[in-house]
């Protein structure tokens, strides 16, 4: 069951506006004292806004659109409004009238109405939120305008607010969320997915109440609080007018092409075996995992992957360069950070906006693109790094004296004679229970996709912090446990690599290539189910003088084969160094 959180609409209204609303209902003399009202309509100030508009011969077109959307009844009620009404002939009436009722209401009618009273008086520069939550600038000195549209006649008093007539309609500016439609571009694939998470809840306090029928309250104008789970999941509040984002928006062609590409990384089986306990003795426990709807799971994960990396906050880091970037210009930046804090370095960042079309919105811009030019390893098939000291993924032990010891090596304490970089400033030591036994440890491997990985292990020498150790290399065996094409658990190294034993370097932090392996199924998205790696020291009694049985492990790296190949051809390539687990 989804947990619903509602983001409530903002309706601007200051104390001074509330005072103005009260003054709107007092006597003619009081009104004249406070406002520079149009004397020609003083006899109508006790009539409602709708009654004033209906009898005004210059507002017949606007009046007909109010009737069409039901706003005639709303403006005839007792709540206080300000209306900026375009006079006849100042806008394309036929085009506006042809809009669907929902679009007409949101993009035109509600774009010209605000709650509370906003009279024009003296020098002013107000920020006003209209009924559709758009922020408008209303002001001037003597001559007034709203969003650059000139006021024809100001301060036409009504019993429930004020009317200002305009020499044109106020332009409607979509925000990014509102632009996820098929009105201008063929983007209904991403639009349909995104809007499938929409949730609306009636806001009774902000809605305009009508009569009570059969004991139930009715509403002349129903205001809904809108929420979309993806706003939170992707940390991208693209519905907020005070936000500033850039969003890559794929056309249907781009979406379907990318979806076909991504699906191969998320091949699921309807049933597979998982080792709940990976010990080699009688304690090992195997369970069968059943997936009710494989197609649904794959589609959900793939769609999430496609949309989760499309958003960039224009106010953060080098993302600020997106504010000025225009169609056809190359992006020059050190890196971009997605809203999920995924980092894309300069080379890959520039690719994202190639041949994309910038379209400005009220809270940033969208970049309509016919291709999601994302390299797979930057988004849906990342490098996976398992920090060996993470106890969550330590499955089982064999012939170990105690729990593996986490050893910290903070900057400045590493032995200067030991070369190499230690990730996360720590590693684990797996010590044998006796001098005559070989210790072993099993790690679960989270986040695995159905793809080929080049697999590495990073080992640490005994003299990492001090030269007071006689260092010897370690020799160890590695095997994998995983579900095969039929979902049956495989546990062994015969199908993985010809070389079954590996030797670490005794004087440096050593990154050892173990081999390439293709996982038949994806585990990412299935829950807490993982394949695993078994690492065992492999030293005979006669070899103890030459090898160290203690295992010192920094991390395990599962690098997508396609990334590994690219790095060999482009050694200076910068990329986000994987997902730490």
Tags for this entry?
581 residues, alpha+beta, 31% strand, seven-stranded mixed β-sheet, elongated, disordered N terminus, 32 strands
Would you kindly provide a brief summary of this structure?
The protein is of the alpha+beta class.
Descriptive report:
Strand 6 (149-158) and strand 7 (161-166) form a beta hairpin. The strands form 8 sheets. Strands 2-1-7-6-5-4-3 form a 7-stranded mixed beta sheet. Strands 20, 22, 23, 25, 29, 31 and 32 form a 7-stranded mixed beta sheet that branches. Strands 21, 24, 26, 27, 28 and 30 form a 6-stranded antiparallel beta sheet that branches. Helix 10 (252-263) packs across helix 11. With 581 residues, it is of the alpha+beta class. The radius of gyration is 33 Å and the shape is elongated. 18% of the residues lie in helices and 31% in strands. It contains 13 helices and 32 strands. Residues 1-42 have low confidence and may be disordered. 37% of the residues are buried.
Give a topology summary.
Elements: H1 15-23, H2 28-34, H3 49-55, H4 60-69, H5 71-74, E1 81-86, H6 93-97, H7 101-109, E2 113-115, E3 123-129, E4 135-141, E5 143-146, E6 149-158, E7 161-166, H8 188-195, E8 198-202, E9 208-213, E10 216-221, E11 224-228, H9 229-233, E12 245-250, H10 252-263, E13 271-277, E14 285-290, H11 294-307, E15 311-313, E16 335-337, E17 343-345, H12 346-352, E18 357-361, E19 364-369, E20 384-387, E21 394-398, E22 405-408, E23 426-430, E24 440-444, E25 452-459, E26 475-483, E27 489-492, E28 501-503, E29 510-518, E30 532-537, E31 551-560, H13 561-569, E32 579-580
Parallel strand pairs: 1-7, 12-19, 20-32
Antiparallel strand pairs: 1-2, 3-4, 4-5, 5-6, 6-7, 8-11, 9-10, 12-15, 13-14, 16-17, 18-19, 20-31, 21-24, 22-23, 23-31, 24-30, 25-29, 25-31, 26-27, 26-28, 26-30
């Amino acid at each position: 069951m989804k947990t619903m959180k509602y983001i409530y609409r903002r309706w601007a209204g200051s104390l001074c506006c509330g005072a103005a609303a009260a003054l709107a209902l007092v006597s003619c003399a009081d009104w004249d004292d406070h406002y520079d009202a149009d004397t020609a309509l003083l006899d109508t100030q006790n009539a409602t806004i709708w009654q004033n508009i209906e009898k005004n011969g210059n507002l017949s077109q606007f009046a007909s659109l109010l009737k069409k959307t039901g706003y005639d009844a709303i403006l005839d009620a007792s709540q206080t409004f300000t209306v900026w009404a375009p006079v006849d002939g100042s806008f394309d009436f036929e085009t506006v009238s042809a809009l669907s009722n929902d679009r007409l209401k949101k993009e035109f009618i509600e774009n010209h109405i605000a709650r509370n009273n906003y009279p024009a008086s003296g020098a002013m520069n107000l920020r006003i939120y209209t009924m559709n939550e758009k922020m408008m600038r209303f002001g001037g000195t003597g001559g007034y305008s709203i969003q650059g549209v000139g006021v024809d006649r100001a301060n036409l008093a009504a019993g429930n607010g004020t009317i200002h007539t305009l020499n044109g309609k106020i332009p409607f500016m979509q925000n990014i969320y509102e632009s996820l439609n098929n009105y201008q571009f063929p983007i209904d694939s991403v639009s349909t997915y995104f809007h499938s998470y929409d949730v609306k809840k009636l806001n009774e306090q902000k809605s305009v109440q009508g009569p009570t029928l059969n004991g139930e309250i009715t509403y002349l104008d129903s205001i809904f609080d809108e929420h979309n789970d993806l706003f939170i999941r992707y940390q991208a509040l693209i519905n907020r007018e005070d936000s500033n984002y850039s969003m890559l928006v794929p056309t249907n062609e781009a979406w379907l092409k990318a979806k076909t590409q991504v699906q191969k990384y998320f091949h699921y089986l309807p049933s597979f075996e998982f080792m709940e306990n990976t010990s080699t003795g009688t304690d090992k426990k195997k369970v069968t995992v059943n997936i009710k709807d494989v197609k649904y799971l794959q589609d959900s994960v793939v769609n999430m992957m496609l949309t989760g990396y499309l958003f960039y906050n224009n106010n953060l880091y080098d993302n600020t360069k997106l504010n000025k970037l225009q169609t056809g210009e190359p992006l020059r930046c050190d890196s971009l950070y997605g809203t999920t804090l995924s980092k894309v370095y300069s080379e890959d960042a520039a690719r994202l906006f190639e041949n994309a079309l910038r379209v400005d919105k009220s809270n940033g811009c969208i970049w309509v693109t016919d291709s999601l030019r994302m390299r797979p390893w930057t988004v849906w098939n990342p490098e996976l790094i398992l920090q060996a000291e993470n106890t969550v993924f330590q499955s089982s032990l064999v012939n170990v004296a105690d729990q593996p010891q986490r050893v910290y090596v903070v900057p400045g304490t590493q032995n200067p004679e030991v070369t190499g970089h230690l990730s996360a400033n720590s590693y684990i030591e797996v010590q044998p229970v006796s001098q005559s036994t070989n210790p072993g440890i099993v790690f679960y491997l989270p986040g695995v996709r159905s793809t080929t990985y080049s697999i590495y292990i990073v080992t640490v020498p005994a003299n990492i912090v001090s030269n007071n150790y006689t260092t010897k290399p370690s020799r160890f065996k590695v095997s994998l446990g995983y579900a095969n094409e039929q979902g049956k658990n495989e546990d062994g190294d015969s199908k993985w690599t010809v070389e079954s034993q590996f030797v670490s370097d005794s004087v440096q932090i050593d990154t050892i290539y173990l081999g390439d392996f293709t996982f038949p199924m994806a585990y990412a998205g299935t829950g807490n189910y993982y394949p695993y790696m078994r690492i065992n020291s492999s030293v005979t009694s006669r070899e103890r003088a030459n090898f160290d049985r203690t295992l010192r492990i920094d991390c395990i790296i599962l690098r997508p084969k396609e990334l590994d190949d690219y790095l060999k051809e482009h050694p200076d390539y910068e990329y986000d160094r994987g997902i730490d687990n």
